[in-house]
Write a structure and sequence with these properties.
single chain, alpha+beta, Alpha-Beta Plaits, 2 domains, four-stranded antiparallel β-sheet, 11 strands, about 30% helix, disordered N terminus, disordered C terminus
Length: about 280
């Protein structure tokens, strides 16, 4: 399973509501990560301005590595890639830094899917200066070749979004959980590229992803997204139907990935519960 996509031109969402325990964890991880990179470094500035949800999802060493990858800000069209072995055999941390833009994760995850690299977990974070991080945990028979991946990631930014139909997917929407977002639930038998297909459908419809969580149990995938329209409000019936149609009928070639930057943060996991 692989792929996430965002399409947005709206303002950054408000701060994540944290209880005292989460606030302490954010403060502790921020301080520890800054110690690792040095208080006077560019990476320290990026750590200090990182989204709270991202800080809660990673260790201080991960945060330091990610923020060094994004310091200084990558050039437009550039993808910086770092591969680090995971504690699990056959699993790696694959970090990709670049500039924020619509369809970024859909493009990158499509590259991974075409190369047989399975995404077990991913966290996306963006900063107000346009920096974007895609932190994947991936599995493959052999370690991905960084040079090949970097070239493919950069080339994918100019490719059109498309996805195959997921005819047996069940797509539902609800507005009860949040005053700001519409919740989108997608359930389907797990298969390679499923999450990528859903993300492309969301992007093609013009919805914006604020957060996502992906789990798989007994061969069934359950993907949940918090979505808004491009004005920052809940989805209307027409937009919901466009997403449902994109998932079940697929998205034809020709959907551009370019556009104005988003200001979003999103995380997702596959058989992994984020910290």
């Amino acid at each position: 399973m692989s792929g996430w996509s965002l399409r947005s031109r709206v303002r950054r969402p408000g701060p994540v509501a944290l209880d005292d325990g989460h606030r302490r964890r954010v403060a502790d991880r921020t301080a520890a990560a800054i110690r690792l990179v040095g208080a006077d470094s560019l990476a320290a500035v990026r750590i200090a301005t990182a989204p709270a949800g991202y800080l809660l999802a990673h260790t201080s060493s991960d945060i330091a590595r990610h923020c060094e990858l994004l310091s200084p800000l990558p050039a437009t069209g550039q993808a910086r890639v770092v591969l680090t072995p995971s504690r699990s055999r056959g699993e790696w941390h694959l970090d990709v830094g670049g500039r924020d833009r619509p369809g970024l994760l859909a493009a990158f995850a499509g590259v991974l899917a075409r190369r047989g690299v399975d995404v077990h977990q991913a966290v996306l974070a963006t900063w107000d200066d346009g920096a974007a991080l895609e932190a994947f945990v991936v599995a493959a028979l052999e370690p991905p070749e960084l040079g090949v991946l970097q070239d493919a990631f950069e080339m994918s930014l100019d490719e059109a979004l498309w996805s195959a139909p997921i005819g047996d997917a069940e797509v539902s929407f609800a507005n009860e959980a949040s005053a700001l977002y519409t919740s989108c639930d997608v359930r389907a038998p797990d298969r390679p590229g499923l999450l990528h297909a859903v993300a492309v459908a969301i992007a093609a419809a013009g919805a914006d992803v604020h957060a996502a969580r992906v789990t798989t149990s007994n061969g069934m995938a359950h993907d949940r997204f918090d979505l808004s329209n491009q004005a920052g409000g809940r989805l209307d019936a027409a937009l919901e139907e466009a997403i449902r149609a994109g998932v079940t009928r697929g998205v034809a070639r020709g959907v551009a990935t370019g556009g104005r930057p988003r200001r979003r943060e999103m995380s997702a996991s596959h058989n992994v519960v984020n910290a």
